[in-house]
Amino acid sequence: MAKYIVQPYKGKLNSRVKISGCKNAALPIMCAAALSTETSTITEVPDLIDINIMKDILVHLGANIQYDKQTSTMTVAYSGNGSFEAPYDMVDKLRASVLSMGVLLATKGMAKVASPGGCPIGARPIDLHLKGFAAMGAEIQQGHGYVMAMASKGLHGANIYLDFPSVGATENIMLAAVTARGETIIDNAANEPEIVDLATFLSSMGADISGAGTDKIRIQGVKKLHAAEHAIMPDRIETGSFMTLAAAIGGRLEIVNAIPEHVKPISAKLREMGCQVVEEDGCLVVEVEDTSKLKAVDIKTLPHPGFPTDMQAPFTALLCRSHGTGIITETVFENRFLHVQELKRMGANIKIDGRTAYIEGGTPLTGTKVKAMDLRAGMAVILAALFAEGTTEVDDIYHVERGYEDLPGKLRSLGIEIARID
Ligand code: UD1
Fold first, then answer.
1. Active site residue 119
2. Is pTM beyond 0.90 here?
3. pLDDT tens track of the chain, all 422 residues?
């Protein structure tokens, strides 16, 4: 199993880093491209484990995909053939593979997708996805570990109210609705920037969508989609992770290819802690004079435009460094504190009460063997390692590599000592 060996960072940052294309936007956009038999070109596709798994799934379902990792360019078209089943071994590796359901219903009128099951960070059901498909005329059956959806006469438009603004359910329903008969309205839709990126791409393929980025999305079904070109938006969680890193080790970091609007809740919390966050010459600049003056803050994760749950773990690590007690309440997932046990192994003083973590800042951390418990939990222990005393060994780094493109390379370019050992 590969691992990272991370050394504490000595000195002050004075560097720049370029943000990659956004994983969580690229995954649904790859699915969208597989709705047309014409070849779409997607650029800024990050080379990540999750992207490669989604590619394999879509190829299995009948897409022709070429991926040039050197240029981060992918071409995608639906061949008209392929399986209508996303089997367990594929779905199990990637939760977002449930988006194949929307693609299959739109292209083949039937889908058999392995039930994604639970996940360490929470139960993560797909009931909202299924309610949406059922409202659009799909007959849903579940059993033997699979979900079957049949729409022998094709899908029709529907009024769908989501009990929670689920990102995945909104995307899945959008994928199914763009070629359904009539109008679909999604109320209480997710309004994350990734939804807007998906809508932009689908619109350039000929889809008729309005309201993406608000809580009401209207989709008028069209007969056919055509090829389009699209550059994936920059990854706001990678941006936020590097912003947090700069705050944790101090100095100045220029972040290239970041969209400040997308990271507003992160900038606000960092400013509250005493960091400078400014836009300069098209870069987002984070500057911290003295990390010993960082102040603790209270954070509550919420759907966009609230504080993103994906940034909760890196901020837990950062709050180990600040003055006072930081409080983090996780409202999106029921069990997203997996990083806490690992930070505690490094000496962190954190107490959890239900969905709230109380972090006593200023407790010195020491390097040891820890695990990347999930993607963002992995980033949390790497950040902590940078201000801990001694070497930290991070195991299970495949989680990190699911979502951060060339992380060791980018960290080394900042002067951070990190080795990847196979
Ligand atoms: C996406 C992101 C993930 C991010 C999350 C929330 C991708 C690939 N992943 O995940 O990084 O942390 O949004 O911003 O884009 N829920 C239900 N029923 C459903 C669907 C969801 O109860 O049918 C619940 C989930 O269990 C969870 C909450 O809704 O508690 C949010 O989930 P959702 O927004 O769907 O997240 P994902 O799309 O899975």
1. yes
2. yes
3. 899 999 999 989 999 999 999 999 999 999 999 999 999 999 999 999 999 999 999 999 999 999 999 999 999 999 999 999 998 988 888 989 999 999 999 999 999 999 876 567 777 889 999 999 999 999 999 999 999 999 999 999 999 999 999 999 999 999 999 999 999 999 999 999 999 999 999 999 999 999 999 999 999 999 999 999 999 999 999 999 999 999 999 999 999 999 999 999 999 999 999 999 999 988 999 999 999 999 999 999 999 999 999 999 999 999 999 999 999 999 999 889 999 999 999 999 999 999 999 999 999 999 999 999 999 999 999 999 999 999 999 999 999 999 999 999 999 999 999 999 98
Q: Measuring from atom 21 of ligand 1, which residue has the nearest CA?
A: 166
Instruction: Note whether 330 and 352 are within 8 A (CB).
Output: no
297: helix, strand or coil = coil
**How many Cβ atoms from other residues are within 10 Å of residue 343's Cβ?**
28
The whole-angstrom distance between residue 327's C-alpha and the CA centroid of its chain comes to 23
Measured CA distances, 390 to 350, 371, 393 (Å): 21, 16, 10
What radius of gyration, in Å, describes the C-alpha atoms of the chain? 21
Per the structure block, which two tokens stand in for 387?
A: 């201000």
Most informative mutation of 128, 147, 167 for ligand 1 (most atoms within 8 A of CB): 167
Q: Whose CA is nearest to atom 20 of ligand 1?
A: 126
Atom of ligand 1 nearest to the CA of 165: 34
Residue type at 160 in one-letter notation: I
- As a whole number of angstroms, the distance between CA 333 and CA 185 comes to 26
Say whether 190 sits in a helix, a strand or coil.
coil
Strand (E) or helix (H) holding 58: helix 49-60
Yes or no: say if 47 and 405 are a contact pair by the CB < 8 Å rule.
Answer: yes
Query: What stretch of H or E contains 343?
Result: helix 338-345
